[in-house]
Amino acid sequence: MFTGSIVAIVTPLHPDGNVDRTSLKKLVDYHVNNGTKGIVAMGTTGESATLDPQEHIEVVKLTVDYVDGRIPVIAGTGSNATKEAIHLTQLVENTGVKGCLTVTPYYNKPTQEGLFQHFKAIADSTDLPQILYNVPGRTGCDMQPETVARLAEIKNIVALKDATGDLSRVSQTRRLVGEQFNLLSGDDATFLDFMLLGGDGVISVTANIAAAQMAKICQAVIDKQIDEARDLNNNLLSLHKMLFIESNPIPVKWACERLGLIADTTLRLPLTPLSNSARAVVENALKLANLI
C-alpha cells in the first residue's frame, strides 16, 4: 500500500509562528509534480512535537485539501501516551488521510509487551491503516523485529518505518512479517541499501528538497536498474548527511527556504535557526546535489 518515495513534509510557518498556508500549498504541488508517492503530514519533520492538537489537525486537513486526491496523505498521530495517540488518530479519521504514522512512545521506555499493547490499542480504535515508526535515536525506545511481527498480524497494521539505520534488520524483519507488509526506511543515508535488501520505499527528509531525485532512485530500484539508482543516490550522499548536521528539521527547513520552496525558516522553540557555520555546509551539499 505504501511504497516508493514518501516525504516527511516540513510545516511552513510565518515569522509570527502561524502556519503558512501559501507555502504549504506550494510544497504539496512541488511533491505531486515531482513524483513523490505520498506525504506524511505532522511527522517529526513537520514539528509535530511543538504544534498544539488544533494546529496539528489543521495542517493535516490543509495537506489533504491541497493534495486533492492526487497522492496519499498519511497523518502523524503518535504520542508517548496511548490515550492521546488514540485521540489524535480518531481526530483524523474523517479528514481523507489514507493512513497514520505512529511513533514508539518516547521517554516512558516501555517493554516490548508495552509496545505491542500500545500499538494494538491504537489499531483497535480505528479502521485507518497504521504505519509503525521505530526511531530509537529520538525516543530512547527500540521496537524489536519480533514485536513488529506480532503487530503485523493485526489487520490494519500494514507497514513499518524503520529509522534505526541497522541494515541487518531488513531481511530479519521481512522474514518475520512476510511480503505483504511494507518495510519503509526512515534513514535517508541508508535507504538505498535498505530497499536493495528488500525494503519497499522510504519516508524521507531529503525528499523535501530533492523530490524528483528521490522518486527516481526508488523507481530505479523497483525497475531493477541498480547502477542507475546508485549513481543518482551518489549525488545526494552529502545531502543525506548534512541535513542532520543539526537537529531535524532545522537544516531541511533552511534548505527549503534557500531553494524558494517556503517563504521563511521559522521554527518553534526549543528548535532554533540553523547556525551560520552550518549554513555553509548545507549550501555546499545543495551544490553537490546540483540543486543550486
UniProtKB/TrEMBL annotation:
Pathway: Amino-acid biosynthesis; L-lysine biosynthesis via DAP pathway; (S)-tetrahydrodipicolinate from L-aspartate: step 3/4. GO terms for biological process: diaminopimelate biosynthetic process; lysine biosynthetic process via diaminopimelate. Its EC number is 4.3.3.7. The keyword Cytoplasm applies. Its main location: cytoplasm. Gene3D superfamilies: Aldolase class I. It catalyses: L-aspartate 4-semialdehyde + pyruvate = (2S,4S)-4-hydroxy-2,3,4,5-tetrahydrodipicolinate + H2O + H(+). It comes from the Bacteria. Pyruvate binds at T45, I203. The record marks T44, Y107 as: Part of a proton relay during catalysis. Keywords: Amino-acid biosynthesis, Cytoplasm, Diaminopimelate biosynthesis, Lyase, Lysine biosynthesis, Schiff base. InterPro entries: Aldolase_TIM, DapA, DapA-like, Schiff_base-form_aldolases_AS, Schiff_base-form_aldolases_CS. The active site is at Y133 (proton donor/acceptor), K161 (schiff-base intermediate with substrate). SMART domains: DHDPS. GO terms for molecular function: 4-hydroxy-tetrahydrodipicolinate synthase activity. The record marks A49, N80, E84, Y106 as: L-lysine inhibitor binding. HAMAP family: DapA. Catalyzes the condensation of (S)-aspartate-beta-semialdehyde [(S)-ASA] and pyruvate to 4-hydroxy-tetrahydrodipicolinate (HTPA). Belongs to the DapA family. This is 4-hydroxy-tetrahydrodipicolinate synthase.
